[in-house]
């Protein structure tokens, strides 16, 4: 039976992602687990300019690669050296994504089992200060020449790989190269234990960068499964490549239900504003209901875009929601439609009104407007959503106060709750926003049996 062979690969590129950048140099060392069997190294013409920052890092410039072969010309040689061998690299997903992409563009369908020497070193030599190739070579007395060139880095990776094989008493490398080995898909800087600690439960997870700052917050029905999904596939887009490189740690908080996880995710994104969270940012409120008083003494209600310099009565994600509520208020409190503006006008528009026939008496009209605002601010529903807990000995609770998300928490199952004040003793306060309120009211409408201590239903 043929001995398992490894292709130890290092590349230099024009940039940080395979979708928009190209290989400028490649080195492949064939290793049988004991000895080096073959070696290949060449510059590659990327058919695009090399940025000054890349030249500063690698020393490779446009003149050096002008007469080098393009990748198509070496693709068969590269494929031959990689076929039926374990693909080994330091931060393997980076090198693999480029080689896979450029072989595919050259017309070849190729895939391979991977081995990351960053992750292998973390397992076999835990507790080192840094696992970058340069720092590992310093820590382990490995000779590293021609740094940031494919040949020099590949030679150093081959020496590191030989030492790791020698020190691997627990058979970690054999476990890692199995196709199902999950840690092979993990970001290179993420400690394995952070991933292993994730439970198969609903909750919220946090990704941290090297400075311990939260860069992404997500919610999940199954924490381990959802986090794993971030690391699967061969997405070569720059955003994902940068995202994975930035992940240096994970923490999590278990929630009893998916709704609680979603509410916690929303409040944490609003509080932390992580770099890579984009989806929920579009749910920021953009419109509000405003009150104005004209020089003739009449009060107006208007829907308009939010402004930093004016305080609105109530916020909305969309103009449509604001218009619907203003129409409902006007009908319920019999406010003359001439004093309702469905797009916020210029200030002067409030003072010009040609429709002056049969206007209501000023004090009566203004009182109706004040009543509508009072109702909107103080007479929306208050209720609790009581649901299952994180374990069998507790229940979860979400409390809504005057239509706003007040907080959530957990109540011991053996505690009898008789009124709303007792419920509030068990909840942790959180900030509310329009999107969260929409989520809660939609859930309450769909699950009426989970609603308790309901007070003051809002007008519809």
TrEMBL record:
Cross-referenced InterPro entries: DnaQ, GIY-YIG_endonuc, GIY-YIG_endonuc_sf, GIY-YIG_UvrC_Cho, Ribonucl_H, RNaseH-like_sf, RNaseH_sf
SUPFAM superfamilies, sorted: GIY-YIG endonuclease (SSF82771), Ribonuclease H-like (SSF53098)
Superkingdom, taxonomy of origin: Bacteria
Domain GIY-YIG: 200-278
Gene3D superfamilies for this protein: GIY-YIG endonuclease, Ribonuclease H-like superfamily/Ribonuclease H
NCBIfam families, A to Z: dnaq (TIGR00573)
Protein name: GIY-YIG nuclease family protein
Organism whose genome encodes this protein: Flavobacterium tagetis
Source lineage: Bacteria, Pseudomonadati, Bacteroidota, Flavobacteriia, Flavobacteriales
């Amino acid at each position: 039976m043929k001995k398992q062979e490894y292709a130890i690969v290092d590349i230099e590129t024009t940039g940080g992602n395979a979708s928009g950048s190209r290989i400028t140099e490649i080195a492949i060392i064939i290793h049988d687990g004991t000895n080096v069997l073959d070696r290949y190294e060449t510059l590659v013409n990327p058919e695009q300019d090399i940025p000054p920052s890349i030249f500063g890092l690698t020393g490779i410039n446009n003149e050096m690669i002008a007469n080098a072969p393009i990748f198509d010309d070496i693709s068969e040689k590269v494929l031959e050296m990689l076929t039926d061998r374990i693909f080994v690299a330091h931060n393997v997903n980076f090198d693999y994504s480029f080689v896979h992409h450029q072989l595919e563009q050259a017309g070849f369908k190729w895939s391979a089992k991977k081995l990351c020497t960053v992750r292998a070193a973390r397992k076999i030599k835990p507790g080192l200060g840094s696992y970058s190739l340069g720092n590992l070579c310093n820590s382990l007395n490995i000779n590293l020449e021609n740094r940031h060139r494919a040949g020099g880095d590949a030679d150093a990776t081959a020496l590191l790989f030989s030492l790791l094989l020698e020190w691997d008493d627990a058979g970690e490398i054999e476990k890692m190269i199995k196709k199902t080995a999950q840690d092979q898909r993990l970001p290179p800087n993420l400690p394995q234990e952070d991933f292993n600690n994730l439970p198969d439960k609903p909750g919220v997870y946090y990704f941290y960068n090297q400075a311990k700052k939260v860069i992404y917050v997500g919610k999940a029905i199954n924490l381990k499964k959802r986090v794993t999904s971030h690391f699967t596939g061969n997405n070569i887009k720059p955003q994902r490549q940068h995202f994975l490189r930035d992940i240096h740690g994970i923490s999590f908080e278990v929630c009893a239900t998916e709704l609680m996880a979603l509410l916690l995710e929303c409040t944490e994104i609003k509080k932390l504003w992580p770099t890579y969270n984009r989806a929920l940012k579009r749910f920021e409120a953009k419109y509000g209901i405003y009150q104005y008083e004209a020089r003739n003494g009449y009060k107006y209600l208007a829907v308009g875009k939010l402004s930093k310099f004016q305080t609105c009565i109530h916020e909305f994600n969309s103009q449509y929601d604001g218009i619907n509520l203003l129409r409902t208020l006007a009908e319920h409190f019999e406010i003359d439609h001439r004093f309702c503006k469905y797009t916020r006008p210029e200030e002067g528009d409030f003072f010009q009104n040609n429709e002056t026939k049969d206007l209501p008496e000023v004090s009566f009209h203004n009182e109706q407007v004040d009543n509508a605002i009072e109702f909107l601010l103080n007479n929306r529903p208050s209720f609790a959503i009581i649901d299952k807990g994180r374990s069998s000995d507790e229940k979860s609770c979400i409390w809504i106060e005057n239509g706003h998300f007040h907080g959530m928490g957990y109540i011991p199952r053996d505690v009898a709750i008789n009124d709303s004040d007792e419920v509030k003793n068990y909840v942790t306060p959180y900030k509310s926003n329009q999107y969260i309120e929409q989520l809660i009211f939609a859930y309450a409408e769909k699950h009426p049996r989970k609603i308790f201590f309901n007070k003051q239903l809002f007008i519809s």
